[in-house]
Design brief:
Elements: H1 2-19, H2 22-34, H3 51-67, H4 73-96, H5 102-135, H6 140-160, H7 162-181
Helix pairs in contact: 1-2, 1-4, 1-5, 1-6, 1-7, 2-3, 2-6, 4-5, 5-7, 6-7
C-alpha cells in the first residue's frame, strides 16, 4: 500500500511540474525540511530537503513566476519549460517512489512522471497560445496566476492526500483535453 501511495504522490507532483517547474520542488523541499514524516524522500534524494536546495528552489520559483507575468516572454518560457518540466516530473517521481526495484522505479518515473508533466505542460502551453492569440497577451497574467496557484495547491495536495491529488489530476486532464484540444471553432454569424 505504501508503494502505491508513493506512486500517486509522484504522479501528483509530476502534474504540478507541468504547471510550474520549480513550485513542486520548493514545496517538496519545505515538506522534507519540516520533518515529522511529511515527505519521505528516496535514497539519494535527501539533498532536496537541504537548506541550499530550499534557497535555490525559492529563487528559481520567484524568477519563473515573475517571468510568466511578462507578455510574450511567457510564451518563450514555455519553450524552455517544456523539456525542463519533463525532467522535473521524472525527478520528483523518482525521488518519492519507494519500495520498488530501481529499474521499475525509473521506468515509472520516466514514463509516468515525465509523461504526466509533459501532458500538463502541453495543456498550459496550448492555453497560453490561445490566450495570447485571443487577448493579445493581456489575459496571460491571469492565466499565469491560475497556473502558479494550481501548481502549489496540487503539490501540497499530493503530499498531504495523494489519492485525492491523483483524482484531481484525472479531472484536470479530462477537462483540459476536452476544453482545449477538442474545442469547436467559433463560426461567424
Amino acid at each position: 500500500m505504501e508503494t502505491v501511495l508513493s506512486i500517486l504522490l509522484g504522479l501528483g507532483l509530476a502534474a504540478a511540474c507541468g504547471f510550474r517547474v520549480f513550485v513542486p520542488l520548493l514545496v517538496m523541499s519545505v515538506a522534507a525540511r519540516a520533518g515529522a514524516g511529511h515527505l519521505e524522500l528516496g535514497q539519494g534524494y535527501a539533498w532536496i530537503g537541504s537548506y541550499a536546495a530550499l534557497v535555490t528552489f525559492a529563487v528559481a520559483t520567484a524568477l519563473e513566476i515573475a517571468g510568466y507575468y511578462i507578455p510574450w516572454i511567457d510564451n518563450l518560457l514555455d519553450a524552455i519549460a517544456t523539456p525542463t518540466a519533463i525532467l522535473a516530473g521524472i525527478l520528483v517521481t523518482a525521488s518519492v517512489v519507494t519500495g520498488m526495484d530501481p529499474f521499475l522505479r525509473w521506468t515509472l518515473a520516466i514514463l509516468g512522471g515525465g509523461g504526466t508533466a509533459a501532458v500538463f505542460q502541453g495543456i498550459t502551453a496550448t492555453a497560453r497560445q490561445i490566450s495570447s492569440f485571443t487577448t493579445g497577451g493581456l489575459g496571460n497574467p491571469l492565466l499565469s496566476t491560475v497556473e502558479a496557484g494550481s501548481s502549489a495547491l496540487l503539490a501540497v495536495l499530493a503530499i498531504l492526500l495523494p489519492v485525492v491529488a491523483v483524482l484531481v489530476v484525472a479531472g484536470l486532464l479530462y477537462f483540459g483535453v476536452k476544453r482545449l484540444l477538442f474545442r469547436r471553432p467559433v463560426r461567424a454569424a
